[in-house]
């Protein structure tokens, strides 16, 4: 128990000056001998709290403890050092998922007991509106269509308002680097005077810091958008501490638990939503919200140029006789009518687009593997209809449709019927086609039966017979006068 300073003074005086023992002091002062034992030699003082009492707060139920342990165990299972639950993230999840009503400090105390905690310190920086933007890369794990992969997160932060922009890419290559900055400038609504980055090879040819030599295309980008490239010194992350902190914040708050998405675009849509939501946030010590301060910065930024910089890696190739073009170690199909023609290919960070005479003819999610061929069934369907006997051996067919549809096609009356089934697949999509097939009750399935369920059933609009239409009464007397040759007034 804690005691008053006056009692503590008497205990110390009687022990040091009167030479009294613990039992005698306890009897003289009418207090517990254990209390005397605690304070008489000066090893404890009553005005300082001696750690946690050990009593469990009533809001920390067994379910809460189990949830916290589950979060920490999930971190151990995933084994991703920079993508773990923080105490705050656990608290936020408890509030959202379990309806927790206790305080954040209570959860921090429990988490601290279950594992050691470490707090990173950052040097505070001050910038004028529109003066500088800091950029950086980070990595995070996601489940993409059920497969666990590593994606690269581009992070961008306006230094005055702390406004943020984030986007996910498959690689940290030049195309992604340039594309991400252009998208970030468009999100911020302007360009700062300086862009601060480290010495990564996508930006720097050689040297570092003030002596860095800028890559040619990045130099062209900075000239077009009128900003100055500024590079940090080696091992000086504090020089871009705002964006360093953002990379960690994104991992902890957006990528915990690990996102499960069907496409990288779905992930980027979520990142954009979180960036927009962050503008409602008010940072401690700032005069207003992030969004309000971002509007102030926008007024001081350089306007975006009228011409958007082409960040792609562009080549021109001749399509082969199989109607495919090769880009970055992989082949992509294009419509058959362009076989043998010269096609322009633009490789962006996450996509590849094909153009013929400035008209886009195909677009794919960019493949970063080697020696793969991506086919689109719609590129070959016209040719397959002319040569139906090839349908069961056509590689675009085998690579594009499910084994279930292949099996259904083999039950049809012949290759021509299979080609008709593929045409329906191209026109309606696999989901609608499978749904239509499931409605067919006959043991001998036909394309006509399937098509009957796919064709829309139009119901003619009903005519309202009671519409009152006012018609002016004809004036036959004037017509009779005209026929007689009389003048009509």
TrEMBL record:
Top-level taxon in the UniProt lineage: Bacteria
Entry protein name: Transposase for insertion sequences IS1326/IS1353
Classification via InterPro entries: Cro/C1-type_HTH (IPR001387), Homeodomain-like_sf (IPR009057), Integrase_cat-core (IPR001584), IstA-like_C (IPR054353), Lambda_DNA-bd_dom_sf (IPR010982)
Domain Integrase catalytic intervals: 125-302
Gene Ontology BP, a term: DNA integration
NCBIfam families registered for this protein in UniProt: transpos_IS21
Molecular function via GO: DNA binding
């Amino acid at each position: 128990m804690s005691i008053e300073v006056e009692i503590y003074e008497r205990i110390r005086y009687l022990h040091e000056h009167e030479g009294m023992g613990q039992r005698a002091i306890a009897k003289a002062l009418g207090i517990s001998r254990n209390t005397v034992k605690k304070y008489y030699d000066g090893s404890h003082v009553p005005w300082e709290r001696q750690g946690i009492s050990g009593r469990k707060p009533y809001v920390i139920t067994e379910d809460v403890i189990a949830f916290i342990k589950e979060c920490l165990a999930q971190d151990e299972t995933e084994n991703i050092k920079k993508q773990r639950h923080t105490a705050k993230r656990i608290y936020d999840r408890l509030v959202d998922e379990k309806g927790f009503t206790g305080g954040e400090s209570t959860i921090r105390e429990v988490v601290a007991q279950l594992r050691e905690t470490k707090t990173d310190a950052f040097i505070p920086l001050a910038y004028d509106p529109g003066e500088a933007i800091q950029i950086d890369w980070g990595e995070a794990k996601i489940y993409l269509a059920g497969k666990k992969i590593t994606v690269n997160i581009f992070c961008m932060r306006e230094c005055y308002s702390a406004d943020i922009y984030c986007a996910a890419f498959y690689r940290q290559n030049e195309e992604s680097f340039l594309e991400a900055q252009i998208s970030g400038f468009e999100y911020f609504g302007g360009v700062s005077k300086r862009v601060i980055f480290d010495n990564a090879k996508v930006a720097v040819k050689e040297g570092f810091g003030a002596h860095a030599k800028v890559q040619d295309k990045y130099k062209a980008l900075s000239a077009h958008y009128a900003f100055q490239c500024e590079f940090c010194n080696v091992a000086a992350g504090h020089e871009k501490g705002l964006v360093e902190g953002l990379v960690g914040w994104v991992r902890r708050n957006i990528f915990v638990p690990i996102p499960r998405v069907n496409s990288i675009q779905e992930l980027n849509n979520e990142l954009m939503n979180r960036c927009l939501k962050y503008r409602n946030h008010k940072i401690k010590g700032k005069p207003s919200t992030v969004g309000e301060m971002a509007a102030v910065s926008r007024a001081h930024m350089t306007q975006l140029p009228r011409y958007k910089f082409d960040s792609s890696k562009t080549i021109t190739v001749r399509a082969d006789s199989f109607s495919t073009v090769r880009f970055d170690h992989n082949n992509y199909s294009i419509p058959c009518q362009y076989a043998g023609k010269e096609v322009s290919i633009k490789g962006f960070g996450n996509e590849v687009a094909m153009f013929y005479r400035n008209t886009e003819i195909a677009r794919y999610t960019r493949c970063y593997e080697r020696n793969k061929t991506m086919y689109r069934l719609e590129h070959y369907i016209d040719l397959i209809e002319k040569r139906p006997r090839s349908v069961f051996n056509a590689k675009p067919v085998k690579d594009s449709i499910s084994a279930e549809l292949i099996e259904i096609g083999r039950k049809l009356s012949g290759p021509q019927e299979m080609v008709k089934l593929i045409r329906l697949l191209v026109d309606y999509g696999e989901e609608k086609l499978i749904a239509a097939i499931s409605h067919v009750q006959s043991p001998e399935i036909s394309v006509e039966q399937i098509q009957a369920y796919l064709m829309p059933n139009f119901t003619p609009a009903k005519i309202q017979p009671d519409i009152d239409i006012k018609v002016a009464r004809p004036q036959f007397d004037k017509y009779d006068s005209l026929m007689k040759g009389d003048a009509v007034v």
